[in-house]
Amino acid sequence: MREMQARAFEKRHSQYLLIKSPPASGKSRAMMFLALDKLINQGVKKVVIAVPEMSIGKSFKSTALSDYGFFADWEVADRYNLCLSLAQSDTRKTAIFSEFITQDVDDSALPQVLICTHHSFRYGFDKVIEDGGSIELFNDVLIGIDEFHHVSADDSNRLGAILDGIMTQTSAHIVAMTGSYFRGDSVPILSDSDEEKFDKVTYTYYEQLNGYEYLKSLGLGYHFYKKSFFDALDECLDTSKKTIIHIPNVNSLTAETDKYETVGRIIDIIGEVESRDEETGVITVRAHDGKQLLLADLVTDDAMRANTQAYLADITSRDQMDIIIALGMAKEGFDWEYCEHVLTIGYRGSLTEVVQIIGRSTRDSAGKHHAQFTNLIAEPEADKSTVTSSVNDLLKAITLSLLMEQVLKPNINFKRRSELNILGKADLPAGTIVIDDTVNPPSDRVMKILNQDRDEILAQLAQNTENIKKYIAAETNNVETEAVSDSVIPSIIRSKYPALDTDEVRQVQEGVMQYMAINRQGGVVEGKDIPEDAVIENERFFIKQGTEYVDIATLNAERKGQLNESDIIKERHLPADAKIYNPKTQSSSSNDSNPSNGFVKVGSKFVNVNNLPIDLVKSVNPFHDAYEVLSRTVDKEVLQTINDVVYASRSTVTEEEAVLMWPKIVAFMKDKNRQPNKNSEDAIERRMAEVITYVRNQKAKREANSHD
């Protein structure tokens, strides 16, 4: 098994399991392993796997897993693979689904696996119930949901409602998989009560890239254009790279003409059409540099498009395709392993969609060392009525880097100090942040949120343009940034986890900000990877005395003078279970001052992850890099336009912020014996004064309304 598959298989006894893993990491095969173990060893009688599109169903075709050392083969009868035949009607598929679910569960001679689309699953379930069947027919059935981000807890999402009913009324098992790290976009996938039941397995892009043979890096880039994106295409399209171009929807603000004209003009920019294959529809283009390119048009919805798709599905070498132009296609489940560059024109409102687009370029392939995502975005124009909307779209687009940088860095885990006392720290991963729980220990719920949900908190932070604008407005003021964080982040946490008490909200906020601060500084570096001549802040130095180690700071001057350089051992090189002897107290103790061997570079020094300066953590601006991209790339007039929109909303106080800030205002007035001053040099005090003004105005409005 591959690393991600083995990690998922360790959780095979979980009734509800959510696997978050990048495209091409082996999720389909992992689902097979889990399903077979549940069928053979755990009493599950049937397996239903639902995928969003028929084309993705091929990933679950019959596979001789025993050839690779597994204890059973994956077998799917053609009749029950509803993704095989395009000719089958929805009515026919629904009838087969119903037949499969209602047949005798104890007859092992009957097929035990069915593959269908999300669509067929919804209609098949409804058919079973309409025909008088009970939801209890799903007892002891494993339901596998591929591309789980298509599900939603929203009332209008039928699949989400069906899963909720199955979870609450049956003994069914559920394995859900997604290539996106961010639930949905604005509506959660599951209700909080349902989500708490799921065990989670997360495999990051960082882990995937480290495990690849060829592909070692992924770049996220932005290219800004004035007036027309056609004028900018030549600058950001490298025809020597295997590329997918996603054009804008005709109804979007980015679209400049209809989709057919868009394809034609892009081809003109690339070169001149020489021919079109009559069987596959593949277009041969002579590029302006004389090179001959093969291009696939997945936009033109004529009879030939199905042939082109079939051709792409059978590609086995780099030379068979160079450029694909797509609209609403070539996203999730689309496999072209040679793709090196995805160029997306225009803002995409869905983070999940963008993550799926990026995933088209991240499959490992011989000769591919770097994958690139480029988003071509319009610069906002100050004289247009849509300037605010344009700025909002631009800010949301570039903040994708905030989210993706979290999963492109080494993983970070939170552990309580008391856990180390039980488990030991010899095998503690480098990216471990230890929380001191001797006083006010964090609850299990807090630890679960920090270790499993923190990226989802950041996703909500990044999807709210008002939050982005508040942070960018505070870009040059660390104290003001802290004030924004103290308002915005707790608000998100309270909304997402209403059952948390005040201390738990604070603990989650502190953990999330530590996480952001570490990645903002470049991520965690293992002690063994720090250059020997690098300076580690507050690092101690030791000599070995028998089986113990002595801090040279505790030695007298005479003994220090006798030391040779070769005798001195840096703290970073101490064994995890080292015993430290103190000659002054004549006692020994464990080396537990810094239980983690992970470090962050701050300036010219390395700092242990558990000793990050509190002002660095509190003042971290999650949108700093996004603003840096703008500052370096656009001209000063465009940057001024963006700043004008950002600062226009700077002084806006919401009722939610007022409620959150009020206890601090009361404490301030009690401590200072005065009200906050709106002209104070302290940004937090100025914000408190603005909140008081807001509260007074709201109170006056309510009193006026009460007299009407």
TrEMBL record:
InterPro entries: P-loop_NTPase. CDD domains: SF2_C. The keyword Ligase applies. GO terms for molecular function: helicase activity; ligase activity. The keyword Metal-binding does not apply. Keywords: ATP-binding, Helicase, Hydrolase, Ligase, Nucleotide-binding. SUPFAM superfamilies: P-loop containing nucleoside triphosphate hydrolases. This is ATP-dependent helicase. It comes from Psychrobacter pocilloporae.
